[in-house]
Amino acid sequence: MTTPTPPRRLRDLHPLARFGLICVVLTLLGGATGAGLQLYFQLHNRDEKPERFTIDDVKAQYHGIRSPSPLLESLESGHPADVGGELPDNERQALLDWLKGDRISRNYDNLDLGDMAPSEIMTARCVDCHNRQAKGEHAAAKMPLEYWDDVDPLSVSREINPVPIEVLAASTHTHALGLSALTLVLCWLALLTSWRRWLVALIVGFTGLGLMMDIGSWWLTREYVGFAWAVVAGGGLYNLGVGLLGLLVILDLLAPAGKKRADS
Ligand code: HEC
After folding, report:
1. 85: which of 28, 79, 114, 184 lies 20 to 30 Å off by Cα?
2. Quick one: pLDDT at residue 2?
3. What is the C-alpha to C-alpha distance for residues 118 and 147, in angstroms, rounded to an integer?
């Protein structure tokens, strides 16, 4: 039987061609790992909490996030009345005005504000419970409000805008075209292996789905923040798929060419 050119199966290729393909696929997998790392470095600080890479980073990147200051939120929810603390309405209003204003650090202990200075109000109304030594039922020693350094991080509202639409369009352009072309070639190689059809088909199926889901969800997340999870799920599926396809191709290329199946 003559071998068609190019052969219909990877294992019929000349050893040098198989060697070359192994090198190419290894490089491709290295590139995919590099892309993943780059994504991590680029995104993990998007929510301005650099410690970890979380779903908030993805939301911040593609949708933008708003997280109001914890102080503002607790005052608006009626705290400290819920724990038996006292805060007259005019003082609550003074704190709310201060937190919603844009001179938070300057007005914190502004002498001109007299008794209505936030530092004065908090010393009188909050610090009994919110201090490092506080003990008892309603103690909040873990969240002291004694010094500006305590108050500062709790006072700012964060607002993070999503990537500008031009940047998203440019990123879609390069990723959608580049990754789909590359994935197509990898899928093709995998389809030329001698692995079981259903196995290759399954992996090709979810790899393609993952790619479309990931990049498509960048755009959907802009409108509907819930799609941030689809970005992550799609990206995960896609990367898993590329890794597995690469592995199948390399293993197939390593298999001795002489070991033909009975049906060939
Ligand atoms: C009677 C004690 C008491 C007083 C007075 C009090 N707090 Fe609290 N505060 C607590 C306790 C206890 C918690 C934590 C328990 C909880 O989840 O409510 C808390 C929680 C908080 C939180 C965190 C809420 C969150 O979402 O995690 C903030 C912010 C806060 N207090 C601000 C204030 C401010 C500002 C004042 C003064 C205007 C104040 N507290 C007065 C006892 C107090």
Report:
1. 114
2. 62
3. 11
